[in-house]
From TrEMBL:
Localization of this protein: Mitochondrion inner membrane
Record has Mitochondrion as a keyword: yes
Family of the protein in this entry: Belongs to the small Tim family.
Name used for this protein in its record: Mitochondrial import inner membrane translocase subunit
GO BP terms in the entry: establishment of protein localization to mitochondrion; protein transport
Main localization, broad class: mitochondrion
Keywords: Chaperone, Disulfide bond, Membrane, Metal-binding, Mitochondrion, Mitochondrion inner membrane, Protein transport, Translocation, Transport, Zinc
One annotated Gene Ontology cellular component of this protein: mitochondrial inner membrane
Length: 97
């Protein structure tokens, strides 16, 4: 199973550039969705002591802080991905050294 996924990834070089770009974008979307899910789970576990009809002020402040950190982290990751895309040839060369 692992060899088939690596051979699929290796075969992307012969794929239409538009299709390859689409696959990269969809992969980034999937990673982002995974990050959202992980942060939602983390914030829920950290901030929600006892689910009830209303949030207490401590839980509300915790969720706000958690979401703000998530936004900051997401922005950092997106900026980093953009930088990586701009310098992709240099990045891939540094990995082969």
């Amino acid at each position: 199973m692992d060899s088939s996924s690596s051979s699929s990834a290796a075969g992307l070089g012969s794929v239409d550039p538009q299709l390859q770009h689409f696959i990269e974008v969809e992969t980034q979307k999937q990673r982002f969705q995974q990050l959202v899910h992980q942060m939602t789970e983390l914030c829920w576990e950290k901030c929600m002591d006892k689910p009830g009809p209303k949030l207490d002020s401590r839980a509300e402040a915790c969720f706000v802080n958690c979401v703000e950190r998530f936004i900051d982290t997401s922005q950092f990751i997106l900026n980093r991905l953009e930088q990586t895309q701009k310098t992709k040839p240099v990045f891939s060369e540094s990995l082969s050294d």
